[in-house]
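Predict both folds.
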Amino acid sequence: MTSGPDRSLTAPVERVARVLAGYALTRNGDGEMCSAGEVVSVIWGEYSEGALAVLRTLREPSAAMLAVGDAEIWDRMISAAIEDETISD
């Protein structure tokens, strides 16, 4: 049996929102916390608009991206990520 491509069970919007929340809270970014996993799990939704803005920015591939991939597929994938309303609990 051949395994398929890796895929996430978490919606792209949630994944990006969690990264933004973690960045804002921890020493790896702008915050002071050593570890913010539990807090991020509670507040990531507050960063969903920022996450959507990031995804919208990615709609246009760079020249380097176009050199190795298909722009139409990329556009469909990013559009699907933006429209994905499957937010994990």
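Second protein follows, with its predicted structure tokens after the sequence.
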Amino acid sequence: MMPTTIQINEETLELLKKVKHQTKAQTYDEVIQNFMKLSEYARTFRGFIGKKKSRDLMHGLRDKKDRF
């Protein structure tokens, strides 16, 4: 892979450094790739759920006898 230079502000760089350290990523590219994958997963999941109300989503997840 050929390295590329991009311009980001100082705050973004600090966030990248923090996430890189926390996730033990080897490169900033890895941090960005992981974020993009997570973002795509979240978008797909939201599309799956759609505009259903949380009450409708939770219906039937627990039996009445399990409730307090």
